[in-house]
Design goal:
There is one protein chain. The protein is of the alpha+beta class. It is built from 2 helices and 3 strands, in the order βββαα. It has one domain. The chain has helices at residues 47-54, 59-65; strands at residues 7-16, 21-32, 35-38. A 3-stranded antiparallel β-sheet has the order 1-2-3, with no helix packed on it. The termini are far apart.
Length: 69
């Protein structure tokens, strides 16, 4: 039985065997009293958005620059 407060990872895997490529799209969904809420709504989904995000500094780069990591 699904109850409010439960959280699910809902993922879809698309495999393109001819290109030796697999793509997984995952959402984290919270069950609420009124239905559900997608906790990962708004994350990068398009190739352009993902490439732009990958071009930005991540936490590891920031910590290394500050000589913390």
């Amino acid at each position: 039985m699904v109850k409010p407060g439960m959280v699910f990872a809902c993922d879809i895997l698309a495999v393109f065997a001819d290109e030796n490529l697999g793509v997984r799209v995952e959402d984290t969904v919270l069950i609420t009293e009124d239905g559900c809420e997608n906790l990962t709504d708004g994350i990068a989904r398009t190739v352009v958005d993902i490439e732009n995000l990958m071009g930005k500094e991540g936490i590891i780069q920031v910590l290394k620059d500050r000589k913390i990591y």
